[in-house]
Each structure stands twice: as C-alpha cells, then as structure tokens.
Amino acid sequence: MRGSSSAPDNSTELMPSFAALPRLGVTYLNLWRENKILNAVFEVLTQQLELSRVEEAKELPTVRVLDRPNVAELRVRPRRKMIVLVSCLLSLIFSVSWILVREKVRGLDDQHPLKSLCMEMAENFGRSRYAAWVRTARLLLLRERERFGSRRGNRS
Q1: Residues 47, 103: one domain?
Q2: Is the model's pTM score more than 0.70?
Q3: Partner of 20 for a Cys bridge, out of 16, 38, 85, 137, CB 3.0 to 4.6 A?
C-alpha cells in the first residue's frame, strides 16, 4: 500500500503519498526559510563578535600594573654630588696638565723634536674641519663678551 497513507510520519514507508506532497513542500519551504534566516543571524552575530573582540583588544592597556609604585623616601641615584665632584676634579687635572705641557713646549728650543711635533700637530689641526668650528665658536664667544661688557659698562 504504497502511497495510500495521507500522513507519512506515522508509517514506515520511504516515500510520502502524492496527496501529502504539497503540504510537505510548504513545510519544507518554511523550514528552509527559517534555516536561512538563522544562518544569516548567525553570520551577523559572528561578525559582531569578531569586531567586539578587535575593539576590546584595542582598548586593553599594553602594560598591566602589578603593584602600585611607592614614592622613595631617600633618593639613591644618580649621585649628583659625586658626578659634579669627579667632573670638576677631572677638568682641573686636564686644565693644569694642558697649561703645564703648553708652557713646557713654549720653553723648548725651536729645533727640539717635541716642539716641532707639537707645531706640526697645531698646523694640521688648523687645516681640519674642526678648526673652522672652533674659530667660529671663539668669534661668537668674543662677540658675546664684548656685548656683555658694553651692557655692564652702561649700567655702572
């Protein structure tokens, strides 16, 4: 009795009857439409979830504070007094040694090899690109000193 039953759900037959096909077609189309709508909703929600994850990743701070910092009661570093003291001491030693060497070289005979070496080094430095910078800086300092001196003279 194939195809004789109007309700294929109750029977064990594989094929529904021809009378039940239009009703099954409508049911199938309703289920297919609902499936498409749910798939579209799922895709939209998935996209929104991805966008919200990206926005959340942008808003997260790159550094996470583990412990709040405490203000130090006693400053340990840098030891500014030590830095200033060492700088002053080194500049004093360099200045004194420069003056002593310069006076020693000036007091030497013109034919002495050390004096000729120093004179040659001074000539080479005079031709170098750094010498132009040193001359320019010296001229600027002299101009500033003259300008400062003239101001100081006017105030007296």
Answers
A1: no
A2: no
A3: 16
